[in-house]
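Batch 3, record 17
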Amino acid sequence: MSGKLPIPKRREAALNASSSSNSSLSSADGMSADLASLFECPVCFDYVLPPILQCQSGHLVCSNCRSKLTCCPTCRGSLGNIRNLAMEKVASNVKFPCKHSSYGCNASLIYTDKTEHEDACEFRPYLCPCPGASCKWQGALELVMPHLMMSHKSITTLQGEDIVFLATDINLPGAVDWVMMQSCFNQHFMLVLEKQEKFDGHQQFFAIVQLIGSRKEAENYAYRLELNGHRRRLTWEAMPRSIHEGVASAILNSDCLVFDTSIAQLFADNGNLGINVTISCV
Ligand SMILES: [Zn+2]
Ligand SMILES: [Zn+2]
Ligand SMILES: [Zn+2]
Ligand SMILES: [Zn+2]
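Prediction for the assembled complex:
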């Protein structure tokens, strides 16, 4: 993993390419890049993608900016509701650069594939892995651990591949998160237990492990979560998630250890729940 921070911006890169005497761009690529620039929103410089609406004089603005504007940013005229079908047709035949191109992604995509690629793009910055949407931090992978140590000091870290994640006061009402870090195999894993109400009045617990690392690195590990009670055992084994994907979608799809409050009571001791966590290399 390189410690380098991405520097060049898309617009500067485009300038360099056109001013260099031996441009390696094929004419078709150059054409597509020129066409893509016609779709730049004058406000945010993101692309204006279908459905494309124009002002009365024909100026374009992206749908995101449009929703915040009362008049055309170019001519101050009325925004109206005029669809530009010709530009929409052109848009279907243009390849747009990935929005993470300034972080090193070279992919160009037709607009219908753009969002899906960008969500999964390996150059997308990492978001803070703490559950809940309260922290807005994002940055490079190598900056995630320093961020956690600086801004989330209260998170406990345990060393070793086999530990007990103790969640206290599991009977607290409402949505609650418990978070802990586990360090082993020279990696850091984040253990998350969430109590949520997916259906009315039906509280469930979701437990999952994510690696502070890329998706590729996560493939090298497996984790096991185990609740142990009086002659009872509940086990879940899976590959850890990468923090690049995050755990929200896994929790939404119940792709984790899921149990309800009555099961939690079977294994809890005085309102505290111990979850055995074992990480292994595969
Ligand atoms: Zn815009
Ligand atoms: Zn206008
Ligand atoms: Zn990309
Ligand atoms: Zn954070």
